[in-house]
Amino acid sequence: MEPKTKDLWVFIETYPDGSAQSVGLELLNPGRELADKQGGKLVGLVIGHNTDPAVKAVQEHGADQVIVIDGEEYEHFTTDAYVNALYEVITKYAPTAMLIGATNNGRDVGPRLSSRLKTGLTADCTKLAYDDETGNIAWTRPAFGGNLMATILCPNHRPELGTVRPGVFKATEPEEGRTCEVIKEDIHVAPEDIRTRLIKEMKEDASEMVDLVGADIIVSGGRGVGGPEGFEPLQELADALGGVVGASRAAVDSGWIAHSHQVGQTGKTVGPKLYIACGISGAIQHVAGMSSSDCIVAINKDEDAPIFDIADYGVVGNLFDVVPALTAEVKKIKGIA
Asked: Beta strand pairing status for 136-143 and 148-152?
């Protein structure tokens, strides 16, 4: 498909209440830089029902234009309805590229959409850049099981499509009251053309849920914690700091902690203000999920562990000596009994 504009689009997923999911707002940040380099507008594409809250958020996070597809059939995600809406609006406006969050829904619509548009899709990206020489987006993602990072170009087909992991980029601070042009598209799907329907919503057990992506402080444990009980001092430190507990794949695969805590290529991608890695060697699969953290502290008894190569601060020592001492100091400073 030949592009009609140099615009860069960001697909904004919504919740059933019409508010924007955070990953779309995060992607407006790198989208701004890419759109400027392409010489086009930054456009937020909102699909959902009663989407005024999402539209407002997209405007306040810096979009030049918002395109809205609103209807009852979009209140809950279905592949048929969303892919149809995306295909119709993209073929009408023909942007140069679109960023999609690598959520469950984004990973569903991305391949279907790229197939219909006969273009490429780079999945699960952790870095985005603009290639000045070719005018293409340089999409970087883990490859070969996370053992190396591959940068992929899509030179021959448009639009360029890519899914980007939540938490890789940080949303900019919203500019309250900011507005931009809003275009409403009247695109609907007949009920008989939607082959799936929501029967029942089942909430996860609250005790198993952890908001790693939204956390400012994460204390993570790896193989070095030695077992389920090894996460107890990490939880105490996280509680003292007002953070949450994360884990490496090795710890999750060993059954020491639930998968919802996993950070890395096959877990969550996070970017907290403080990430404390305890007993984590620093395999590239784990680093891919936390390297964008503002400050990384590594605690490991192996002074040659790769985690020290990316850490801002490193402590060589037994985590079961270091973590309790750190917790006691934090409690002392914060006046916690």
From this structure: antiparallel
The closest alpha carbon to 83, from 62, 67, 69, 97, belongs to 69
Q: What are phi and psi of 224, to 5 degrees?
A: -65, -15
Secondary element (H or E) of residue 11: strand 8-12
Alpha-carbon distances, residue 173 vs 26, 30, 167 (angstroms)? 10, 14, 15
Cα–Cα distance between 159 and 161 in angstroms, integer?
6
Q: Residue 119: is its pLDDT beyond 90?
A: yes
**How many helices (H) and strands (E) in the chain?**
9, 15
Residue 167: pLDDT over 90: no
Q: Give the residue from 12, 14, 62 showing the smallest Cα distance to 41.
A: 62
Give me the amino acid identity at 211: D
Q: How far apart are the first and last CA of the chain?
A: 64
Please, which residues have CB within 8 angstroms of residue 306's CB and are 6 or more apart in sequence?
Answer: 281, 282, 283, 287
Q: Higher-confidence residue: 214 or 175? A: 175
Residues 6+ apart with CB under 8 A from 27: 10, 99, 101, 164, 169
How far is the CA of 311 from the CAs of 96, 272, 316, in angstroms?
Answer: 37, 14, 12
- pLDDT at 53 > cutoff 70: yes
